[in-house]
Write a structure and sequence with these properties.
about 350 residues, alpha/beta, Aspartate Aminotransferase, domain 1, Aspartate Aminotransferase, domain 2, 11 helices, globular, pyridoxal phosphate, aminotransferase, transaminase activity
Length: about 350
């Protein structure tokens, strides 16, 4: 996938290892965005009305198809955090929630802020076992977690979630896919997940201001949603009481440029091949794990797991981060270390170069 670098101008200036913070803008996507705004400039409301009835439904279908979900159970939201908060407004207070310790704040905080009864699973190499133990010992009715942990990149075993749902069919599994979606050939309807939400600005490369939520059919009876608006009823003055579940997440107008950008990027990823992207990222993950393990820079919880994402947090201080920055490596300081995150526009040569910088520190 080395040839994909040419579509991302940032890669000509930097060694970009920071997709977990923000995915890159594709030059072809920028052209589409410019054309979109030009159409708005010369078309005004005519363009926006057409886009609302043609582009937005197309985006919803594109998202559903890309992730193997049902279009009628797909909601477009500006970001994951807003969508999750809308969902939780419809969740009863009788539930006991299982969260992962130190998970992304926008996953844990909405539950904690509502003062629900909460249990926590320890985030270590035995994450799946820790989750199962809690579910067996406590009266857990909702499991909410990131599919990939934002600080250290630990990725939950999707087969484990499928088995968990089979063994505990009444358990509601809510997942944040923001650090996951766009990295594998994932099929939502075949998974054990009941609700999957994600923002589109990281691995999906859709830019900011867009995201989505996917729902299984059975989840509709578990929530009493409170959000409502004219858009949810397809601008039908008599449609207030006939709004389908997913449309409660779209009470107002959606930005056609932002959501059009998401659809454009999903089409681009499809053209590259979801399977090809997944295979390339597996190669990068294995390569990075070998290099960082050899340098004894990874925490035991990561080193001990058989498979991992392409997000790695290594031991490193401000001085090392400054050295990486001075050598045009774009990464992030997270927790007590330095986080690298590799996407399909990265290569094994990038990892070799980073490893060499680390060895010379």
């Amino acid at each position: 996938m080395e040839n994909t670098k040419k579509h991302f101008p940032v890669c000509s200036q930097y060694m970009y290892a920071n997709t977990a913070s923000a995915g890159l803008l594709n030059d072809k996507l920028m052209e589409w965005r410019q054309e979109h705004d030009l159409d708005y400039l010369i078309g005004g409301s005519n363009m926006k009305t057409k886009a609302r009835f043609e582009l937005i439904p197309k985006v919803r279908k594109t998202v559903a198809k890309f992730f193997g979900a049902k279009t009628e159970n797909t909601a477009l939201v500006p970001n994951f955090s807003l969508g999750l908060n809308m969902l939780l407004e419809g969740l009863g207070t009788e539930h006991t929630i299982l969260l992962v310790q130190n998970d992304y704040p926008s996953v844990n905080w909405p539950f904690e802020y509502r003062k629900l009864k909460i249990e926590y699973a320890v985030l270590d190499e035995n994450l799946e076992g820790n989750i199962l133990k809690k579910i067996k010992s406590e009266k857990i009715s909702v499991l909410a977690l990131s599919l990939v942990q934002w600080v250290n990149g630990i990725r939950i075993d999707l087969d484990f979630l499928k088995t968990l749902k089979r063994d505990f069919p009444e358990l509601i599994i809510i997942a944040d896919g923001t650090q996951f979606c766009g990295t594998t050939d994932f099929k939502f309807e075949e998974s054990g997940i009941d609700v999957l939400g994600a923002s589109g600005y990281k691995w999906l490369l859709g830019g900011y201001g867009n995201g989505f939520f996917l729902f299984k059919d059975g989840i509709k009876s578990k929530f009493t949603l409170q959000t409502m608006g004219f858009n949810a009823a397809d601008i039908n003055a008599k449609g207030r009481d006939d709004v389908r579940f997913a449309m409660h997440f779209e009470p107002g107008h959606l930005d056609t440029m932002n959501f059009g950008s998401l659809a454009f990027s999903l089409d681009y990823l499809t053209s590259l091949g979801k399977g090809a992207i997944e295979k390339h990222l597996e190669t990068l993950s294995e390569k990075a794990k070998r290099e960082f393990t050899a340098l004894e820079l990874l925490e035991d919880a990561v080193s001990a797991r058989t498979s991992h994402s392409t997000i790695f947090n290594i031991k490193g201080d401000d001085k090392l981060f400054q050295k990486l920055t001075e050598n045009n490596v774009v990464c992030s300081q997270r927790g007590s270390g330095i986080r690298f995150s590799f996407h399909f526009y990265n290569t094994e040569k990038d990892i070799d170069a980073i490893a060499q910088l680390l060895k010379s520190s």
